[in-house]
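The data layer described in this paper is built around a simple, fixed record for each protein. Because each token names a local backbone shape, the row as a whole describes the fold. We quote a single record here, exactly as it is kept in our systems:

***
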Amino acid sequence: MDKNEHLKKVLNTNDISKVEHLNRYVDKKNEVKSALDKHFSLEIASKSIDSGSYAKKTANNTKFDIDVATPFKKKESDDQNGFSTLEDMFNDVYKYLRNDFADGDDDLEKDNVRKQKVSIGLKFVFEDGDEFELDVVPARERPEHGSYNDNSTDLSLYINPSNRSKKEEEENRTSIKTNIKKHVSLLSGVGRTHERKVARLLKVWKTKKKEDGGGKLIKSFMMELYTKEAFDKAESIPSGLWNKVKMVMEYIIDNIESNNLKDPANPNGNIVSDSMSDSAKKDTRKYMQTTIDDIEEDGETIKDYFPVNKDYDDDEDDSTGSESASILGTNKFG
């Protein structure tokens, strides 16, 4: 069993560009961005930006949505535009999307606009029954009015109380500092090609494990951060896709239960690993170790842990894993 060739095929068949209605989703995403920018033209600090796995080029076609973020101004006096509280910002964006925007969009019902932890989720249902989910993240510049610019992109997010983690509830936290542009840049560039491939493969692994009843597992953003850390701290990078995936899995196994994983955009204020329960960390560690052991003992089992997406398996010998084919540039998303 050639494990590396199999993983190349996994990447190819999970290629996001193979999604049939992708252009439809991109167009809808751009409509939402334009509508937000127009409706909140006085309050925004910048035009809405792409975020999430699409912008980071780590998306797969098996499970995906599209994320956008709208940076708003911080209102500190009556003569300024923007929002004085994060809660007002979050609720105003929610009300606009649920009411005005949904009223004017044939593909969006009011009940399909929902408050999530730091975002507003939209589910579009098209005339042919096709569905598409989009997350809108309202964010506010920091630390003061007029702070947001090309060289200063820190943002504050509102944490919806009903979706707080146990630790956030204990600390009564209702906001979090982040930097979406910094997150997008973490795995960007030619020099991070292998990291993006590994991150995508780990997402395939997680999706399969969830389908098999794996319960709560490591979050995708955490896998991306661990992937970057593993590559950055490695004395040498092994050759071959499987050895790279194994290296990152072993790094996660060694660190997930014992060391804090910090948000690079807010290392002193946001411990990303705190958002995972102890049981989720334990299960992730156990499942990853079992995956490594089984594949090392019998290479054929790699097909079970990292399955080819049969919906897009044309059995052609196209296993280059080229990002030029598998990733749409950020400009495609506006």
Remarks:
- The mean pLDDT is 91.
- The chain has one domain: 3-333.
- Strands lie at 49-51, 66-72, 108-115, 120-125, 131-141, 155-158, 175-178.
